[in-house]
Predict the structure.
Amino acid sequence: MNRVAAFAVALVAGVAAAATPATARTREYWVAATPLDWNIVPNGRDAIEGARHPPSETVFPTVVYRRYTRGWRRPLRNTPARSGNQDLIPGPLLRARAGDRILVHFANRDTLYRRPHSMHFHGVRYRPSSDGAYLPGFSGPDADVAPGSTYTYRLRAVAGSVGVWPYHDHSPSMMDSIAGGMYGMLSILGRGERAPDRELVVVLAAMGRFQAIDGRAFVGNTPVFRARVGETVQWDVMAMGSEHHTFHVHGHRWRDRDGTPRDTVTVGPAESFRIRWHEEDPGTWLYHCHVEGHMAAGMIGLYRVSR
Ligand SMILES: [Cu+2]
């Protein structure tokens, strides 16, 4: 190839590279099913009704999804602490952009129950070998990763993936795993979409005799979310388990897809949505499930907006 032709090839290659969005890339996450003792009500009380809940009622051994550095060398926080997000339950917030490939490397370190586990993802594109759901006689090693084993799930965020989605254990131990907090969320931005200043992760799910937000019950135990006036705040909300919940935030409104102002949304099992607003209301606010019995059983927390 002469020098002119080589230059032309380089130029074409350069144009092709420019046409590919700079943000499209491969995102890799390292996650392990990790046993621990979990306390649903660490401060032992329902501050609103004044009831006491001793550790004998609120602490139980469970298995959760925990994020690690490459090769599962060192544990990481599951979500950034800055916005007040809870650690360990839910599992890591898996972020990507439309067009990205997502590799989730999963290790089953369940030394507690020694049961198989898996990861099954909503909202993204994948082959059956990355479905992570147990189909007797049909599914492969993705669906019941044995204790001590690993599996890599290969996913793609497509245009229709923009939004927030659940992932959860779909192995034969799914029912117990979900009751114990083995779930998390994917958060997919559009190609050119700006990321919010704060991303607040809310999972509404029963836990034992309590109704929990991110595995905790009652004000003082549930996440205290934080934001500042002027910031773009995004709430990632989903329900898990067998009940419907009505998500509500005090002092704020957002718009539905059809433009209708809302301050409540009802969300069923494995349904999920994100809402955004430009924050302009300083103060300490409540967020809670508006199913009254759920609120009384702990599904309530604080949202603090500073100037
Ligand atoms: Cu509820």
